[in-house]
Amino acid sequence: MRILLIGTLLVATLLAGHAALALEKPEPKTAPPVRAVDRVDVMRYMGRWYEVALFPNRFQAQCIADTTATYALQANGTIEVRNRCKMADGSFDDAIGVARFAGPDSTAKLKVRFAPWYLGWLPHVWGDYWVIDLEPSYQYAVVSEPSRQFLWILSRSPALDGKTMSEIRARLTMKGYDVTKLQIKPQSASAGTAMPGQTNP
């Protein structure tokens, strides 16, 4: 009987200890929902942007440097998207897509498609493009989407200074992004060369 009592007390003590530890253990933090900026002046956003950093992704695996994105507003209200990057053999990879606004009042939220036009009716060919950070004079922008899987830091110049990058990283951390995934992409003089029919902003 005494052995049973001691065993019962021991189990109770262990359970109490585990309960105390559970109370002391902080609850896992839940990242806040991704939010786009309130508004983007579409015309000021058009033109060439340099990709200075990103979360690595499979569809840009061939790009080693000089990645740019050039946006041009079309007569029908959509936006032409021209992405360009340098590959390992020194040649350039070009991709032309189209972007449309996610809603009538959502200038900071777009849908982008690089698939052929005749597949445009399929929902899955359109990817989310949300501007989540935007410098007031439109010198840099941060683009992401609701799942935080993709992220790009774009700049009007080929590079951003260390202070600016640190400030962007700090804000991204507060927004629930893992900034250790950021990969800096180099830019060279050739990245500023306009393609035929284009002008630099």
Short description:
By secondary structure, this protein is α+β, with helices and mostly antiparallel strands. It has helices spanning 2-24, 42-45, 162-174, and strands spanning 47-54, 65-73, 79-86, 92-101, 109-113, 127-134, 140-144, 151-155, 183-184. Strand 2 (65-73) and strand 3 (79-86) form a beta hairpin.
Question: What are its keywords?
Answer:
eight-stranded antiparallel barrel; 201 residues; alpha+beta; disordered N terminus; 20% helix; disordered C terminus
Structure overview:
By secondary structure, the protein is α+β, with helices and mostly antiparallel strands. Helix content is about 20%, strand content about 30%. The chain has three helices and nine strands. It has helices at about 1-25, 40-45, 160-175; strands at about 45-55, 65-75, 80-85, 90-100, 110-115, 125-135, 140-145, 150-155, 185. An eight-stranded antiparallel β-barrel has the order 1-2-3-4-5-6-7-8. A hairpin with a 5-residue loop joins strand 3 (about 80-85) and strand 4 (about 90-100). The radius of gyration is 24 Å and the shape is globular. The termini are far apart. Residues about 1-30 and about 195-200 have low confidence and may be disordered.
